[in-house]
Amino acid sequence: MQSSSSKHFVLVHGLAHGAWCWYKVVTELRSAGHRVTALDLAASGVHPAQVDEVGSFEEYSRPLLDAVAAAPEGERLVLVGHSHGGLSLALAMERFPDKITAAVFVAAAMPCVGKHMGVIPEEFMRRAPLEGLLMDCEMVAIKNSQGAGVALHLGPNFLAHKCYQQSPAENLALANMLVRPGNQFIDDPMMKDSSLLTSGNYGSVKKVYVIAKDDKSSTEDMQRWMVAMSPSTDVEEIAGADHAVMNSRPRELCDILIKIANKYE
After folding, report:
1. Is the full-model pTM beyond 0.85?
2. Radius of gyration of the chain (CA)
3. Taking every annotated instance into account, which residue ranges of this chain make up the domain AB hydrolase-1 (predicted)?
4. Sequence-distant (≥ 6) Cβ neighbours of residue 125 within 8 angstroms
5. How far apart are CA 63 and CA 50, in angstroms?
6. 3-state DSSP call for residue 11?
7. Active-site choice (56, 188, 243, 248)
8. Is the residue at 171 inside a domain?
9. How confident is the model at residue 126 (pLDDT cuts 50, 70, 90)?
10. Cβ neighbours around 259 below 10 Å, total
């Protein structure tokens, strides 16, 4: 039985991943007596849609939006987003600020009020060295209701050296078996709407950024740049964490999540 102090964590994966990547964190949080929901966004994990069947970023984020909307009256959630999943988190925060007690961005894309969400991938590309940026990742041609585009399939060398270099070998093996092509929705109109995120909704939700100190996919400088864009954001750091923080440092991440949930009632 869960205690009256138990919290409901909703975990959102990054690009090309699925709910499966959170299995260590789910186990830790449930062992501590908390309720946990790990979601598959559309065309991710075991979600039945294929990547070219998902026509928009809104549709991609729909599993999260539906889960937050369905939360019972009076139950306030702790949303946790990883990597590209931070953008879906932001959309849920804008739509349902009163249902969320805190939002935690774990080495994640964290947009700010007053700028469109596409600023984050644009800045990432501006800062990233061109040589070896995507390594053996493959660009997969897709066509959905918005027209022709590309999805990204993360290659095994990219996963090994940019995302999972501090994680146990079995986690890298699992990722290589389960990642699916992911659409960043860079040309989606929602990504270019600078009025989408408002101070009254998105800006009113308490934000915490968890910096992965050994992230080779998104540098610490890039993570701190996003924090500086939203100066009211609290910051936690995890030494030795690669981009796949939930695999390389699950215990440390869970300790931070529980501390956040206890702090923001």
Report:
1. yes
2. 17
3. 9-255
4. none
5. 15
6. strand
7. 243
8. yes
9. confident
10. 12
User: Could you tell me which residues are beta bridge partners of residue 56?
Assistant: none
Q: Is residue 167 part of a domain?
A: yes
Q: Under DSSP, is residue 98 helix (H, G, I), strand (E, B) or coil?
A: helix
Whether 136 is catalytic is: no
**Per residue in 70-110, pLDDT tens?**
999 888 899 999 999 999 999 999 999 999 999 999 999 99
> Residue 21: inside a domain, yes or no?
yes
pLDDT tens for 235-254 read 999 999 999 999 999 999 99
Interatomic CA distance for residues 28 and 252, integer angstroms:
10
Domain of residue 31, residue span: 8-263
Number of other residues whose CB lies within 10 A of the CB of residue 170:
9
Pick the catalytic residue from 44, 61, 83, 217: 83
How many domains is the chain partitioned into structurally? 1
pLDDT over 90 at 192, yes or no = yes
Q: Which of 61, 215, 217, 242 is catalytic?
A: 215
Identity of the amino acid at 233: T
Structure tokens at 146: 């918005």
The predicted pLDDT at position 5 comes to 62
Distances (CA, A) of 16 to 75, 159, 167, 183, 222: 30, 11, 18, 8, 21
Any catalytic annotation for residue 243? yes
Is 66 one of the annotated active-site residues of the chain? Answer: no
Residue 193 belongs to domain with CATH number = 3.40.50.1820
Segments in 108-243 forming alpha helices (H):
119-127, 156-158, 169-178, 220-229
